[in-house]
Amino acid sequence: MTAAGPDNSPGNSPDNRTDNRTDNRTDNSSGDSRDPGPDGGPGLGALLADIEDAERTLRGVARTTPMEASRWLADRVGGPVHLKCENLQRAGSFKIRGAYVRISRLSQEERARGVVAASAGNHAQGVALAARLLDTRATVFMPFGAPIPKEEATRSYGADVRFHGHTIDEALVAARQYAQETGAVFIHPFDHADILAGQGTLGLEILEQCPDVATVLVSTGGGGLVAGVAAALAGRGSKARVVGVQAAGAAAYPPSLAAGRPVPVERMQTMADGIAVGCPGGVPFEVVRRWVAGVITVSEESLSRSLLLLLERGKLLVEPAGAAAVAAALDAPGAFEPPVVAVLSGGNIDPLLLMRVLRHGMIAAGRYMSLRVCVPDQPGGLAALLSKLAEVDANVLDVVHQRTGAGLHLGDVDVALQLETRGKQHREEILHRLRSAGYTVNFS
Fold first, then answer.
1. 420, 376 in Cβ contact below 8 A?
2. Residue 246: beta bridge partners?
3. Is there a contact between 362 and 308 (Cβ–Cβ < 8 Å)?
4. pLDDT tens-digit readout, 325-378
């Protein structure tokens, strides 16, 4: 896990949890002022007023999602941890908040022209549902390869779905062009003040449900959600540290914060399509720079392991992007002062991807192991090997024989095995039993 931003001075830290944390926030001595911020952007008071207005707009539209205490995470962090379950929000993610606020603030003439958006799925569903509720047409551009359930859900809300490019950024280009050609209003997924205000209502809910929160972990793509949450908490006077979490394979914020401006990444590769954004938005970037404590990254292994644990221990189904906050807490549990709130930003996941991610998570957690064992090519050779595995209660998922190959002696056979284990300690027990029986074990 890596972080962006200058380190806090250890001498000013209340305890050793904060020594290695980062802080990008500038001084906010005019916290309640509605005057412009230090760089000419909106002041904190104006942002809070906009978020509070959005909260009134969303009453009866967005659900107040539950906040669940997590004992298994609390044991690791060393204090209370709560999961803010936006995976249970309407349309399966927080995106309905910003989309509805943005479209609701359009004039009747603008709504008559329809709206257009680009998204890998969650923003698409939010826009489609909001447009239906507000009686306007929606066209959504998705990148090729977008999850099928997200596409189908978007269509079910009445949107016209079109495909373009292989990333959100490429789909955004097509959506903007469509807006210019047709007059439809472009609904950006994160780079607009109305979107930020809508997402910020999540921060107000967090404060209502956990008033003493010390750390809020938020999965981050373009930055609309983490910026909105940070503005809401800071505007209400909370001292909680808001930390953004990005997938390491699609992390535009750390280099952008280091440069002091949005910087696009050259390439992205992550299973977390919901936060795979190539460049921060200018509107949320300024808020993130001023009021978000830092942005950290997590690996694909951490994402898949967290998704598996949320399913097993929390009984909560989330998508990879929705598990990013939990992944951060698991990677560095001592880095975050409790009470901690981890935002589960979305739960829209393709069942095929879910199967792959769960398998990946099982491997990362030491629950699957793949190995190769050389055994004599004679009757009973394989049975003897399987007998040793049965003695240590290893479940064999797959067996493949290979009788020819470099390094294989005549009369030997290479046996490739896939095993299901109970975890890392069980793995060590299996390896010890095989090696004690004289087998040479290699990992495949």
1. no
2. 297
3. yes
4. 999 999 999 999 999 999 999 999 888 888 887 777 777 777 788 888 888 877
